[in-house]
Write a structure and sequence with these properties.
Structural class: alpha/beta
Helix content: 55-70%
Strand order of the largest sheet: 5-6-7-3-8-9
Number of helices: 51
Largest sheet: 6 strands, mixed
Strand content: 5-15%
Distance between the termini: 121 Å
Shape: elongated
Amino acid sequence: MDTLCGSGELGSKFWDSNLSVYTHNPDLTPCFQNSLLAWTPCFYLWATLPCYLLYLRRHHRGYIIISHLSRLKTAVGILLWCVSWADLFYSLHDLAHGQAPAPIFFVTPLVVGVTMLLAALVIQYERLQGVQSSGVLIIFWFLCVICAIVPFRSKILSAVAKGKILDPFRFTTFYIYFALVLSAFILSCFREKPPLFSPKNVDSNPCPEADAGFFSRLTFWWFTKLAILGYRRPLEESDLWSLNKEDCSEVVVQRLLEAWKKQQKQAARHRVAVASGKTVSREDEELLGGRSRPREPSFLKALLVTFGPGFLISSCFTLAQDLLSFVSPQLLSILIRFISNPTAPNWWGFLVAGLMFMCSVMQTLFLHQANRYIFVMGLRLRTGIIGLIYRKALVISNSVRRESTVGEIVNLMSVDAQHFMDLTPFLNLLWSGPLQTLLAIYFLWQNLGPSVLAGVAFMVLQIPLNAVVATKTHAFQAKQMKFKDSRIRLMSEILGGIKVLKLYAWESSLLQQVEGIRQSELRLLRLSAYLLAIFIFTWHCTPFLVTLITLWVYVSVDPNNVLDAEKAFVAVSLFNILKNPLNSLPSLISGLTRTSVSLKRIQHFLSQDELDSQCVERKTITPGHAVIIENGTFTWAQDLSPTLHSLDFQVPKGALVAVVGPVGCGKSSLVSSLLGEMEKLEGKVYMKGSVAYVPQQAWIQNCTLQENVLFGRTLDPSRYQQALEACALLADLEVLPGRDKTEIGEKGINLSGGQRQRVSLARAVYSDADIFLLDDPLSAVDSHVAKHIFDQVIGPEGVLARKTRVLVTHNLSFLPQMDFIIVLADGQVSEVGTYSALLQRSGSFANFIHNYTPDKGKEHPEEDSRTAALDNPEDEEVPLTEDLLSNHADLMDNEPVTNEVQKHLNRQLSAMSLDEEGQSRSLPLKPLGSAEKIVQAAEVEANGTLIEEEKVEVGKVKLNVFWDYAKAVGLSITLVICLLYVGQSAATIGASIWLSAWTNEAMVDGRQNNTSHRLGVYAALGILQGILVVSSSIVMAVGCTRASRLLHQVLLHNKMRSPQSFFDTTPSGRILNLFSKDIHVIDGVLGPTILMLLSSFSTCVSTLVIIVISTPLFTVVILPLAAFYIFVQRFYVATSRQLKRLDSVSRSPIYSHFSETVTGSSVIRAYDRIQDFEAISDAKVDNNLRHAYLSYFSNRWLGVRVEFVGNCVVFFAALFAVIGRSSLSPGMVGLSVSYALQVTFSLNLLIRMLSELESNIVAVERVKEYSKTKTEAPWVIEGSRPPAGWPTQGEVEFRNYSVRYRPGLDLVLKNLSLHVCGGEKVGIVGRTGAGKSSMTLCLFRILEASEGEILIDGLNIADIGLHDLRSQLTIIPQEPILFSGTLRKNLDPFGNYSEEDLWHALKLSHLHTFVSSQPAGLDFECSEGGENLSVGQRQLVCLARALLRKSRILILDEATAAVDLETDDLIQAAIRTQFENCTVLTIAHRLNTVMDHTRVLVLDKGTVAEFDSPASLIAARGIFYGMARDAGLA
């Protein structure tokens, strides 16, 4: 290098220590300035350019129109090139005139000139690629300015010293160069305009990050606007920015899906190869134990392929930060030497302080950029996993659906996906931890020699202990997740069937089941917390013990080894660095164990069987046909016997086909097989054209009625109007508060069963498909509506007349109009043909028709019923049907047994539904207590909103929430934890000051005498710290487990006691979210957060105390730094807290929508709307991501600012040490600065944990809020229990009884007074809204009296507990609801009945044959919701429950016999005999079901209109007579 610089006047040496170091006025040699200093920015640009150009090619954002700014930047670049080459030409000029300039004067201008030209070209290339602010060039210009500052000073000093300028030309060009690079740097800090054709332009509220400048991105300044807004007022949805395109679900999920499909294809190829034996050698077979195992697709590989690049960028930043962290201890070493050397120049100390500050600032910036990339990767991971699980859930086969319940899959989405995101911050530790450890050991060896090996050996010994604890934690995690799944699954079922639980008084049984699972979960939680305490003990004590052992060995091995300040505090600083990977080790290990469990669960779910999309051939079919099945055999799962055998039939295009047969014969399964929902064992299915499907139980979405009908299609007003009219929905719109814009609640709760079915049918009609598969759509509607729908929609003259229609029905009246009929029996086609052909064939179908039709010759029995609908000519023709699976037929008709055939005829010919007769005035009804919903219509606002928006708390978390949690933990436990941390801080300060005093101890004969004493006290203080830490962890574990138990218990007990109205207006997804996400936070997040908060707080306080003791001058800057810290903290906490709350609330819709989707997956698949629903789910996830994204960036914004405070602490601690060097000992300086170096992390962690606590305590806030909702009356009132055997008579009396749904609403029953004698059979009739269902709700006290009373056997029911009342009444509800578990549990959850009783009830309810045919018998496992039983069988289970309970009062709430007519006939006989002496109250929609009752109660507008025997009422020619006449019964 010296030769490059030449000799003579302008020549110089490359380096001169006397000039640069050992002087009070330092400078660099001209050679150094002209070579290395000038080349450094050039080297940087050339080194980064290849990667940068590659990045620009792949990230084209549209071009930017050339602007004045761009022109100016380019001009400055070209001018710099000209200036540099002017220097070059000047050197050539000198050479030409006989002078010999040093080679450096040719090399440097050439290198710098080419680099400046390159920079000008890069400016233009960036403009074409759409770069608004270039980080690469900003750093380049910054380096140019920094490197030019030294010559800038040096040339002025030289000119002043020599009194003249030696080289005027180069002097002038340099200052022009300096002015230009400074201008270039300033210009580069300004942003260009957004590029043209940028997708960001169309976004109404784009995230400013994309357009932010380099410094703004580096310091997260772009977030400041939101932080200020969040401080001024609570943030709202509209304030939040949109997601960046690359972070949206649409992009992320697609990338992960492609990677996963690639893995599946590779695994499939491997399986084929293994099966064929091609790729497996003999040696491999031996290694694999004699057989080769097929490879499973690896979800981990798919994740690595998709998200690996983001991780690599983060790793680069982490590497830079890790390397910089080791510079500070070296600078500390120099600073202590400087303090120890009184002759050292002062500028050394100031330079070290400045370098420490610069180093700390660089660390901060690198760290937060690393975190930015890793957190965005974590969010994308979660997004991708949720998207994949959602997509998989839409296509899993039925056998998989039986194993994976909605609750379990929701857990995969909520908890398991979160585990991946929680792990991402620790991922870099996998390589960074070992690197930091090796570097720390290397520098410690430099400092303390071989003594460090003792410490390293101790660390190695910790590994087996950590491994054992990690293994145990892994096992506990896996078990805990299983219990959590079970609990969420059970809660999901409870919420689905809460009304049935209340009516049966079964809450306590389900409560015990949930609490049993919870106890097992808490036991594992407690054990995990104790293991965490061991972890905390090891990681907290290991760094100290390593320091202690190392220092002990160091002073013991050689008496001449002196522990001075430099050795001790540089070692302490290095051990503190070493502490970081060790501190994070428990989080990494527990995160890895949790995530590995989650990875296996998710991979298992994603690898499950899917429905075979090829099992129905949709492209080719015999001309003229729409549906063909050839020799089709189908099953619901491979391990079950076939449900349908040897099916052979063809459906011509445009035909109307009926599918009939008894319950359980496979009618619904036949429809499912056509949809491809069943597993095809053999045969072929052909179906050409688009499909519309109306399921047996209508699936209604939680959206407006119009959205339910349109189902994602664009609105065609005329077609839409036609669909509503044909499906008899226009009259319903008149009474819905928002007409067709009315929001329909979850599962259609504010519609009656009939309305739900008609909406489902309207959806099919509007779809205008080619093939319509109608699974008993007329069952839920009443007679004349069924007739209207058949005539207007399904029948030969309906709107679907030219379409292919396959109709499952039990409606005999419509069969003559069918093109042909398929008769099923035991899963096989027993007969096929037209109605007349089947009658002539005299098979089972003909026998059935003849038995249940009075005139066997009539082919059109409905004509008989065309009697006198005098007041309603529109409804002259009324259908005949007893809808087999209807929600409105009654299980019981107490008519004389003598006229069975006539009884069936009456049921077949029941003329008009009372409800639907007054349809123009009808109001929305909910099955099973429909009256509740009538009033909801009154409550709903004009815009039709029903479901209450989830409340978002605003402002600070109230102190009473923290107080509630402290009480749940236990006040004494809370106090003990605080005291333990105070003790720990005191021990830390004591140990540090003791070490400082030790290093300052005077030496005698070159050695320290009190070594053993010093070491002993230091060891004692350190061990005391460890004991206090582990004690606080154990006490915290006990307290947090207690809080988890109490908070869950209170929430569960409150929800079990919440009134029915609460569940009607609160989505189940929101309640499930409480029991999954919020309880998960309370269980596993709050405890560790509080521990970290207390730990970081004690560290910060200890550090500040130590610095103030060491350098009292530091107190001057404490106040301004504290003010800035608090200022930033207030901005951050206000914004972060609200973002967390919005995040929490925006999660619920994801899971609600998911639950809804899974329930209606068959409908979604049938209409081919999978992609639309995926888009809806993605939109909901994206909405949640907006909050999470900004929440994480608020942490980065805070980190940069708070760490700046920490960096200032380091700077001022070092600066004041330099200023007060004469009065400070090296030991005190070492103590002060070594502690200052670690305060940055603790200050940041303190605010983060404070905010994390506030954000997570929101879970407690929500749980407490939902734990304090209004509850029902007590289940049991000990001082007021009814006598044993009550009621003995079954006498029911209403006295001046009035009731309203909620305060402020109108009365639904007004001054009702009536008396029902014991054993009486009373029918309750009346038009819609008359109060029929309200009466039953009042009997069960689902509704409480406004005034008056109800007496049963003379006892006021308001005086006794709800369970004492409800357990003595029996109801057969409209909707048969079963719970997962054994059939025995579903019949007798409390185990009150003997085996004989159960079998007797099954025999009477005609389930005996089915149950006895099952291998498990009474222990037959019912799936979630009883899905593995037909609807009819579920109704029979409800009947068996009633027969078991057999109380004196039986209520039939429009209880539908979802069974065929013959079975129904037997059931009616069973009820008549079994409940002969009981009081029976029958709510009737069809008058024929109550014509044989003792008396009939006619309600009108909530009052008693008539009450007498049917004969007397007909004779009186009042309201009842009008109804009977309209129904053809009078």
